[in-house]
């Protein structure tokens, strides 16, 4: 769809029939709208507006022309480690914003990660229907998410915390690197049985990844949440290193400074140009 007024912009419209909404689904939808209205980030799909009539609720969303990460993995079989690192850094940026607002996504999977475009895609985290507010140390108990990406503690215990998202990140990372999830099976029962085993996840035989990449992957896929890497450690891990990853805003500022420096240089103002280059 397109905006009728102002600058022409392609948007995606999610149409939800009111008659199909259960009480829980209604609560999930309201939570999703509230979260997306509050959070604005370059790696979280934007909720532009929402409207409704007697029959339907319409979510007007940012349009991502690159499809989703699931399709991208299927098309490319396995992703290069450099691409996986770039995507993981972008996902980490989105998760850091969620952490700052005490939000757990609860349904991280490649199908819920959109790509901004076909060429040079940027990740956009989407579908917050299962998300909930969880501060560090808070516990939840309802079963949420997709079985293939569901943390063991969701199936094995009555309570879990926001570290379930980090397990899902590990499964997604594994799938990007090796082409399939470690517990891939045709039925829920088989997936659940594999998740319930005590056998730790190992890298596939013959896998070629850097020590840094393999270290993070195995730390994310620790079955016991108390042994799993925490969010701050994840953000600071050398494979992610969020502190040194430029944002779109800083990149834009950097380009502007370089353009100003080049202009000063061409005018013969070397001292001013040098100051701009050093910024």
Automatic annotation (TrEMBL):
Signal peptide: none annotated. SMART domains: S_TKc (SM00220). SUPFAM superfamilies: MIT domain (SSF116846), Protein kinase-like (PK-like) (SSF56112). GO terms for biological process: autophagosome assembly; autophagy of mitochondrion; piecemeal microautophagy of the nucleus; regulation of autophagy; response to starvation; reticulophagy. InterPro entries: Atg1-like, Kinase-like_dom_sf, MIT_dom_sf, Prot_kinase_dom, Ser/Thr_kinase_AS. It catalyses: L-threonyl-[protein] + ATP = O-phospho-L-threonyl-[protein] + ADP + H(+); L-seryl-[protein] + ATP = O-phospho-L-seryl-[protein] + ADP + H(+). PROSITE patterns: PROTEIN_KINASE_DOM (PS50011), PROTEIN_KINASE_ST (PS00108). Gene3D superfamilies: Phosphorylase Kinase, domain 1 (3.30.200.20), Transferase(Phosphotransferase) domain 1 (1.10.510.10). Residues 1-240 form the Protein kinase domain. Keywords: Cytoplasm, Kinase, Serine/threonine-protein kinase, Transferase. It is an enzyme of class 2 (transferase). Its EC number is 2.7.11.1. Pfam families: Pkinase. This is non-specific serine/threonine protein kinase. It comes from Amblyomma aureolatum. The lineage of its organism: Eukaryota, Metazoa, Ecdysozoa, Arthropoda, Chelicerata.
